[in-house]
Design brief:
By secondary structure, the chain is an alpha+beta fold. It has one domain: Oxidoreductase, molybdopterin-binding domain (Sulfite Oxidase, Chain A, domain 2). It has nine helices and 13 strands. The strands form two sheets. Strands 1, 4, 5, 8, 9, 10, 12 and 13 form an eight-stranded mixed β-sheet that branches. The chain has a five-stranded mixed β-sheet with strand order 3-2-11-6-7. The longest helix has 7 residues. The radius of gyration is 18 Å and the shape is globular. Bound molecules: ligand MTE. Ligand MTE binds next to loops.
Length: 314
């Protein structure tokens, strides 16, 4: 049985009644609220990464915006909830499992990955389906470098991602606003694309809990909800994976979710975006800019979709 489907599932400002009615439960479970902005171990751990050519020249969004204006529904549906209520979440130690249609399934420790993978810092545009955007300096490694380790079978066509599901540490999962665990998927060629990053840091430091510690996906030419946080497993499959937002509202959130100003969301335009942290105002402020197809990464990724109708395959 699918869980309760909210009438207005928006990757947005919705606050289901049961959430605000039970807000006291959240506050009681909030724990180390003041520490939520700190790195995984409670200290701001610097990461050693080389600068990457995959970097845009746009002005970087202030850290304050990127770490306090978040979507991470496992900690609540309001933008401030993830920073406020993720203090009890324990991102270390953490293992990530890679399995399914592969020759060599593995389970790897994330700290080992941080120590051994070629880390790069890349400044990417990040466009949320809610028509706001940021410019963020991620530290991470190419997902392809991780996926190659398991020797995928030739018949595998997609990868399915799952976020951890920890009711004791994630107050938001008591509410069936999405199908938990949060799940996402990519076609294999999208997953293997050099722009597709497994991020372990932001602003040169390990990811704060609210941004998806200890490891998350970043796919810069797709809407932000494809960038699944706190990943516990990656499974190779020959079927298009189920994704949490598509299960919640399939007419609004498709599998591909490529940034596309020509295809409006059924309830709002996608033609432009507010760039957070620019042009005055905080939280919700920001200058408006025209949205670019594939979020400006068309030169690198348009060929992946040659021959497809991206209005139908949204
Ligand atoms: N991953 C999980 N597990 N849960 C979520 O609610 N929200 C998505 C995505 N990944 C989400 C998630 C959405 S809608 C967006 S816009 C981005 O995370 C936000 O990433 P940020 O908070 O680092 O800006």
């Amino acid at each position: 049985m699918p869980a309760f489907k909210p009438p207005v599932p928006a990757c947005s400002e919705i606050t289901p009644k049961q959430l605000y009615v039970n807000r006291r439960h959240f506050i009681a479970g909030a724990g180390a609220i003041g520490l939520a902005g700190l790195g995984a171990s409670g200290a701001l751990a610097a990461l050693n990464a080389k600068k990457s050519g995959y970097t845009v020249a746009d002005t970087i969004t202030p850290r304050e915006d990127a770490t306090t204006y978040n979507n991470y529904y496992e900690f609540g549906v309001n933008k401030g909830d993830p920073a406020q209520y993720s203090g009890d979440f324990k991102p270390l130690p953490w293992k990530i499992r890679i399995d399914g249609m592969v020759t060599k399934p593995i389970e790897v420790d994330v700290e080992e990955l941080i120590a051994t993978m070629p880390l790069e810092e890349r400044v990417y545009r990040f466009r949320c389906v809610e028509a706001w955007s940021m410019v963020l300096p991620w530290t991470g490694f190419m997902l392809s470098d991780l996926l190659k380790k398991v020797e995928p079978l030739g018949s595998a066509k997609y990868v399915a991602f799952r976020t951890a599901l920890r009711p004791d540490e994630m107050p938001g999962v008591s509410y069936p606003v999405l199908e938990w665990p949060y799940r996402e998927g990519l076609r294999l060629d999208e997953a293997m694309h050099p722009l597709t990053l497994m991020a372990v840091g932001i602003y040169g430091e390990k990811l704060p809990n609210q941004n998806g510690a200890p490891i998350r996906l970043v796919v810069p030419w797709k809407y932000g909800f494809k960038s699944v946080k706190s990943i516990e497993s990656i499974t190779f499959t020959d079927k298009q994976p189920e994704t949490s937002w598509n299960m919640a509202a399939s007419s609004e959130y498709g599998f591909y979710s490529n940034v596309n100003p020509e295809r409006d969301h059924p309830r709002w335009s996608q033609a432009s975006e507010r760039v957070l942290g620019t042009g005055g105002g905080f939280f919700g402020g920001g200058a408006r800019r025209d949205t670019e197809k594939f979020n400006g990464y068309g030169e690198q990724v348009a060929s992946l979709y040659a021959g497809m109708d991206l209005i139908a395959d949204y």
